Amino acid sequence: MQFDTKIAVVIRTDLQAWQKLNVASFLTSGIAAAFPECIGEPYEDASSTKYLSLIGQPILIYGADGPALSRALDRALTRGVKPAVYTEDMFKTTHDAANREAVRAVARTDLNLVGLAMRAERKVIDKIVDGLKFHS
Questions:
Q1: One Pfam family for this entry, by name (predicted)?
Q2: Which helix (H) or strand (E) holds 101?
Q3: Angle at 34 between CA 125 and CA 72, to 5 degrees
Q4: CB neighbourhood size of 92 (10 A)
């Protein structure tokens, strides 16, 4: 099935494995919150055990270094796409309000980005992530 939109997550490649997983989880929650229409129906197995709904379309995960993350952020913003962001400073906080303060304290050009997530029309996402490779 081809979707009209695409979800892309870009993770800085030099992070530790636990950090990459943490960042991806937080960023995809931002997509789910901003785009509730992308959430599918709840799951149920053959034993009638019920499970939570998931995002109902593929999520493409790209790897990038710091400059490529900044470039992707700039490309997103110039195309009117509002991304979810995760900065290195957020690893030092323990709750959502502190995360927001950590981001608010730094100008956009100085953010030490470790991840971005965005959902937009397929062609727009393709232009934002142009040159990036899938994360390995």
A1: DUF2000
A2: helix 96-104
A3: 30
A4: 10
Left (φ > 0), alpha (ψ -120 to 50) or beta: where does 50 sit? beta
CB-count exposure of residue 132 (10 Å: 0-12, 13-18, 19+): middle
83 in helix, strand or coil? coil
pTM equals 0.94
Domains observed in the chain = 5-41+48-134 (3.40.1490.10)
How far is the C-alpha of 83 from the C-alpha of 1, rounded, in Å?
A: 24
Tens digit of pLDDT for each residue in 7-66?
A: 999 999 999 999 999 999 999 999 999 999 999 999 999 999 999 999 999 999 999 999
